[in-house]
Amino acid sequence: MIKLAEGWKDFAVLATGDGYKLERWGEILLLRPDPQVIWRAQRDLFAYPSLSAVYRRSEKGGGSWEYFRPLPESWNISYRDLTFKIKPMGFKHTGLFPEQAVNWERTGALIREAGKEGRRPKILNLFAYTGGATVAMCKAGAEVVHVDAAKGMVERAGENARLSGIGSGIRYIVDDCKKFVQRELRRGNRYDGVVMDPPSYGRGPGGEMWKIEDELFSLTLQCAQLLSDNALFFLINSYTTGLQPTVLENILTLALKGRRGKVEAYEVGIPTEEGIALPCGAGGIFIHE
Question: Which domain holds residue 17?
Answer without folding.
Answer: 7-73
